[in-house]
Amino acid sequence: MERTLVLIKPDAVQRGLIGEIILRLERRGLKLIAAKFLQVNQELAETHYAVHKGKPFYEGLVRYITSSPVMAMVWEGPNAIAAVRQTMGATRPTEAAPGTIRHDFALEVGRNLTHASDSPETAAQEIALWFKPEELYPWDRATDAWIMGQN
Ligand code: UDP
């Protein structure tokens, strides 16, 4: 079982895609265990994107993520990290596979709608950065056995 941090970034919020993105993750069988809607401040943006500091797109990326509220969530499921990134599609929307969120709703790498953790290590770091432990609510879902094969 894995957990992953998902951000619905400012462009997706502004474009009314919160529901569409949640729908796709929920329909896939992933389980939402934490969510908050917030305005990202400079410090959180810089910590979250620290790995990109110094790259040509870094300043613009920090401006983008702080430009308007985001929806931050933790999703859980077997192989959740790979599954969510697959549902999002490649970083560059023009390289994202048809049927993925970035293919279906985006054109530019700098406005690619979502963020999702890319490894178990970054998932753990990012979940701890965005959520306090008591803000995570694992729960039993009646359909878990049908989705996760635990029967
Ligand atoms: N990004 C950008 N220009 C680039 C590469 C990345 O604006 O040339 C932005 C884009 O929003 C991307 C984020 O930086 O989602 C983080 O980049 P990463 O390579 O980690 O992609 P992701 O994991 O989000 O697919």
From TrEMBL:
EC number: 2.7.4.6
Pfam families named in the record: NDK
GO CC terms of this entry: cytoplasm
Signal peptide positions (record): none
Positions of ATP binding: 9, 57, 85, 91, 102, 112
Subcellular localization(s) per the UniProt record: Cytoplasm
GO BP term, pick one: CTP biosynthetic process
EC supergroup of this enzyme: transferase
Active-site residues, Swiss-Prot/TrEMBL: 115
Sorted UniProt keywords: ATP-binding, Cytoplasm, Kinase, Magnesium, Metal-binding, Nucleotide metabolism, Nucleotide-binding, Phosphoprotein, Transferase
Reactions accelerated catalytically: a ribonucleoside 5'-diphosphate + ATP = a ribonucleoside 5'-triphosphate + ADP; a 2'-deoxyribonucleoside 5'-diphosphate + ATP = a 2'-deoxyribonucleoside 5'-triphosphate + ADP; dZDP + ATP = dZTP + ADP
GO molecular function: ATP binding; metal ion binding; nucleoside diphosphate kinase activity
Keyword Protein biosynthesis: no
Ranges where the Nucleoside diphosphate kinase-like domain occurs: 1-138
Cofactor(s) needed for function: Mg(2+)
Quaternary assembly: Homotetramer.
Membership in a protein family: Belongs to the NDK family.
Function: (Microbial infection) Catalyzes the phosphorylation of dZDP to dZTP, when the bacterium is infected by a phage that produces the substrate for the synthesis of dZTP (2- amino-2'-deoxyadenosine 5'-triphosphate), which is then used by the phage as a DNA polymerase substrate. Major role in the synthesis of nucleoside triphosphates other than ATP. The ATP gamma phosphate is transferred to the NDP beta phosphate via a ping-pong mechanism, using a phosphorylated active-site intermediate.
Protein name per its UniProtKB record: Nucleoside diphosphate kinase
Naturally occurring in which organism (per UniProt): Thermanaerothrix daxensis
Source taxonomy: Bacteria, Bacillati, Chloroflexota, Anaerolineae, Anaerolineales
Gene: ndk
